[in-house]
């Protein structure tokens, strides 16, 4: 979603601001802007669309200020045009904002009543006018921000610069994350460590409710009560990460191909490869034996990872699992039992709905465990137990390697649960762990089918609708396949449990509709073949993802087979995820869409 950068620099900062914003492009945005202090005056440059448009504006009208803020905006209130792009300004202050100001309408009416003139449709502009209304009363910038913050309802990260103040920047956080960066005679604000990566490795995160007053050499943080507090400075490690695509055309392609390696890293974190045992590196503050119900909550692709894990926890640990979409979980008033376990899955660790669900579960007295890819994220910091996935930064908006690494961590946890509950023997554990250890090799084998999938994608790109079918753990993967295709190629796709076909979606099938069937040869394979026959009988074109045995047994007309390696049934979703992702990727490439930053989507969804 939106990205924030602020620099109190020693030289001109406009170029650095844009450079940092480029690192935030992966979050998704539709306009961008910067403001710097030019001879004491606040001057802005903004542009609709991609950063290259902003760069072109800056080339025509350069900025030389040493203090500045920058922003990539993902539209919530008002269209993605220049007038709505951040920074927003009133006479004495400019501000950039992530999140949503829920009471902006009433504040806007009040401020307009007091004579303020608004230039945009955004919720953010009320923040600029509100702070300005205190400045014109003679308050200092610090006091003006202090007076304004309690008036704002909603979620926000804010960075302010002020007319006439070339040694001052103020940041505030409620809900949306904000980090302080410490430089040599310079200070920075950023919405994440990646934004700050080109500038510094030394960062600290504001806690919820904190606000900070920065000069070139100092950072004074206050909490919501107004007390001065210390927030630990840590090494972000993000500067060692190079945002480049290597030899790939898109980040998504690079990330798909990284999977054998990063799944290997995640396995190494949770397994003892030598003894073929689960070896969780953290102590669990609960005993799986005492857990009666497990609740898993997440959004989008992370939710589908949770859906696969539901099958594992139920099968390996005989533990009943409820899987929820985060935005539904806390409003549906599910009966929850204090002492049970709630698992939250999130690549970014900042998804607003998942974070709200985590807080709700904590209030209900549940133990909380999160599977996150960003270990410094809010969800990680607020969970009782954290299982980091070691996927490395995921830049493509469509989640790929984070998904398979989430599955890896969850598989290890489900086996650990089975051991603790006595439902898996030593031998079962060794067999399952052996299966996990094989995954990187099998995923690498799955990647070799890319040329065939690329050819198939040309065909899929002509379709208007695509159906994905699967049973068992291949059912959530079918949902994931449909999500992946629609989000990056904009082709309508739906995922169904194969057995549900005849309860409705079969009505859609004709010779124009490709049906992707995910069916490793397992105990439900025969049933899936029957569903394929139903498709074939109606002229549907089938793309079957299966193994050698499955290909031999499936005798259905008009079928293309993508041959996956033989492997244990339990962990097929990790390997079959690869052709599913590649099919979506190559279809999107044929369609010519913006694969890494598909329209309307954001990487880190920090609004509800
Ligand atoms: C789809 C995708 C999204 C995310 C969802 C949750 O490819 O990436 O559906 O999975 O927005 O995001 P996180 O995992 O950051 O909570």
TrEMBL record:
SUPFAM superfamilies with a match to the protein in the record: N-terminal nucleophile aminohydrolases (Ntn hydrolases), SIS domain
UniProt xrefs under InterPro entries: GATase_2_dom, GFAT, GFAT_N, GlmS/AgaS_SIS, GlmS/FrlB_SIS, Ntn_hydrolases_N, SIS_dom, SIS_dom_sf
Subcellular location: Cytoplasm
Boundaries of every Glutamine amidotransferase type-2 domain copy: 2-217
Any one GO molecular function term: carbohydrate derivative binding
A Pfam family per the record: GATase_6
UniProt domain SIS: residue ranges: 284-423, 456-598
Active site residues of this protein: 2 (nucleophile), 603 (for fru-6p isomerization activity)
GO cellular component, one term: cytosol
Reactions that this protein is recorded to catalyse: D-fructose 6-phosphate + L-glutamine = D-glucosamine 6-phosphate + L-glutamate
Enzyme Commission number(s) from the entry: 2.6.1.16
Signal peptide per UniProt: none
Keywords tagged on the record: Aminotransferase, Cytoplasm, Glutamine amidotransferase, Repeat, Transferase
Annotated GO biological process: carbohydrate metabolic process; fructose 6-phosphate metabolic process; protein N-linked glycosylation; UDP-N-acetylglucosamine metabolic process
Role played: Catalyzes the first step in hexosamine metabolism, converting fructose-6P into glucosamine-6P using glutamine as a nitrogen source.
Quaternary context: Homodimer.
NCBIfam families: glmS (TIGR01135), PRK00331.1 (NF001484)
Name of this protein: Glutamine--fructose-6-phosphate aminotransferase [isomerizing]
Organism: Rhodopseudomonas palustris (strain ATCC BAA-98 / CGA009)
Organism classification: Bacteria, Pseudomonadati, Pseudomonadota, Alphaproteobacteria, Hyphomicrobiales
Gene: glmS
């Amino acid at each position: 979603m939106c990205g924030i950068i602020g620099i109190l620099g020693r030289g001109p900062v406009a170029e650095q601001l844009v450079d940092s914003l480029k690192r935030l492009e992966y979050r998704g945005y539709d306009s961008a802007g910067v403001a710097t202090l030019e001879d004491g005056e606040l001057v802005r440059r903004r542009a609709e669309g991609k950063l290259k448009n902003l760069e072109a504006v800056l080339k025509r009208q350069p900025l030389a200020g040493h203090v500045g803020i920058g922003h990539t905006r993902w539209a919530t209130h008002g269209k993605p045009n220049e007038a709505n792009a951040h920074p927003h300004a009133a006479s004495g202050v400019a501000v950039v904002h992530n999140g949503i100001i829920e009471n902006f309408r009433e504040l806007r009416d009040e401020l307009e009543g007091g004579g303020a003139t608004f230039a945009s449709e955004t919720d953010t502009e009320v923040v600029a006018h509100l702070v300005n209304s205190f400045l014109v009363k003679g308050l200092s910038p610090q006091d003006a921000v202090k007076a304004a913050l309690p008036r704002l309802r909603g979620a926000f990260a804010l960075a302010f610069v002020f007319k006439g103040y070339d040694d001052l920047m103020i940041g505030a956080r409620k809900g949306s994350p904000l980090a302080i960066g410490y430089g040599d005679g310079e200070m920075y604000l950023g919405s994440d460590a990646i934004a700050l990566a080109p500038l510094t490795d030394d960062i600290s995160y504001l806690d919820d409710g904190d606000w900070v007053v920065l000069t070139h050499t100092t950072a004074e943080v206050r909490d919501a009560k107004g007390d001065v507090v210390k927030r630990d400075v840590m090494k972000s490690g993000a500067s060692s990460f190079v945002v480049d695509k290597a030899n790939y055309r898109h980040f998504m392609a690079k990330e798909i191909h990284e999977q054998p390696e990063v799944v290997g890293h995640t396995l190494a974190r949770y397994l003892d490869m030598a003894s073929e045992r689960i070896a969780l590196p953290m102590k669990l503050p609960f005993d799986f034996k005492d857990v009666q119900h497990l609740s898993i909550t997440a959004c989008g692709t992370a939710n589908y990872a949770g859906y696969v894990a539901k099958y594992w926890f139920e099968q390996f640990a005989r533990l009943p699992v409820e899987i929820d979409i985060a935005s539904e979980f806390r409003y549906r008033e599910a009966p929850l039992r204090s002492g049970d376990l709630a698992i939250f899955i999130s690549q970014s660790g900042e998804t607003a709905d998942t974070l709200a669900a985590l807080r709700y579960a904590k209030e209900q007295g549940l133990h909380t465990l999160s599977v996150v890819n960003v270990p410094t994220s809010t969800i990680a910091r607020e969970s009782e137990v954290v299982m980091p996935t070691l996927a490395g930064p995921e830049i493509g908006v469509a989640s790929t390697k984070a998904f398979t690494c989430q599955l890896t961590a969850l598989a290890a946890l489900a086996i650990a649960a089975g051991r603790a509950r006595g439902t898996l023997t030593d031998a079962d554990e060794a067999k399952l762990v052996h299966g996990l250890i094989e995954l990187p090799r099998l995923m690498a084998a799955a990647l070799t089918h890319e040329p065939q999938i690329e050819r198939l994608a040309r065909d899929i790109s002509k379709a208007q609708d695509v159906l994905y079918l699967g049973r068992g753990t291949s059912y959530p993967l079918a949902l994931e396949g449909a999500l992946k295709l629609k989000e990056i190629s904009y082709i309508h796709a739906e995922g169904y449990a194969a057995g549900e076909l005849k309860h409705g979606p079969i009505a859609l099938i004709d010779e124009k509709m490709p049906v992707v069937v995910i069916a490793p040869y397992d105990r439900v394979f025969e049933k899936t073949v029957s569903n394929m026959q139903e498709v074939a009988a109606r002229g549907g074109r089938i793309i079957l993802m299966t193994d050698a045995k499955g290909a031999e047994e499936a005798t259905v007309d008009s079928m293309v087979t993508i041959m996956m390696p033989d492997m244990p049934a339990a962990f097929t979703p990790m390997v079959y995820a690869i052709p599913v992702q590649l099919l979506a990727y190559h279809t999107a490439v044929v369609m010519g869409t913006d694969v890494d930053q598909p329209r309307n989507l954001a990487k880190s969804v920090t609004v509800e």
